Amino acid sequence: MQGAKRAEWIIGIDPDVTKNGVAFLERTTRKLEVTTLNFADTLDYLCFVKRKSETTLQSFIVVIEAGWLNTGNWHYRYSDSKAKVAELGRATGRNHQTGILLAEMCEHLQIPFTLQKPLRKIWHGANRKITAEELRAFTGLTGRTNQEGRDAALLAWEYAGLPIKIKKK
Rounded CA gap, 22 and 148, in Å? Predict the structure, then answer.
């Protein structure tokens, strides 16, 4: 998308079958709001932001985590049973399909979006995911968040090119 990196509002989405992580970032003020929404509510929210951007003349973009763009996505251990590996594959595929459908709906609704490969897992949380404390350290975000919301916030923050500074433990 041309000029997309200059968008004033950035919405990060971490797709999930039950609840998508959704983060709203206002680039200049660094105001960050994080929530989780089901698929239908996510679409309603995106339409709301689109209408608001048209009335306020603020540009925005939706950044959708696109795990299906990875060439390999292996989440199993050799000790896992065939049934467990099959279930992991099924769950991963369902999450990917949610992201694909979100992108398709953005295109249909003429909502600007981009697909983002999952960011590297370099954090101190389980499976090297970002923790609430780590996110708070560079965003100032307070309150409870779940992993999907934190991942969505990280997508938006990274896309905006805002600094990520963490003190080493």
Answer: 8
Look up tokens 């370099």; give the residue: 122
Whole-angstrom Cα distance, residue 39 to residue 102? 8
Element (H, E) at 40: helix 39-56
Look at 33-37, 63-67, 83-87, 138-142 and tell me which has the smallest mean pLDDT.
83-87
pTM: 0.83
Bridge-partner residues for 65, per DSSP? 116
- Please give the pLDDT value at position 4: 47
How many Å apart are CA 168 and CA 149, to the nearest integer?
23
Structural domains of the chain in order of their starting residue, each with its CATH number: 4-160 (3.30.420)
Classify residue 22 by its DSSP letter: E
Distance CA 38, CA 43 (A): 9
- Which residue, 4, 42, 5, is CA-closest to 21? 42
pLDDT of 143 reads: 84
Query: Which residues are registered as beta bridge partners of 35?
Result: 22
Interatomic CA distance for residues 24 and 11, integer angstroms: 5
Query: What pLDDT is recorded for position 95?
Result: 79
SS3 content of the chain, % helix, strand, coil (to 5): 45, 20, 35
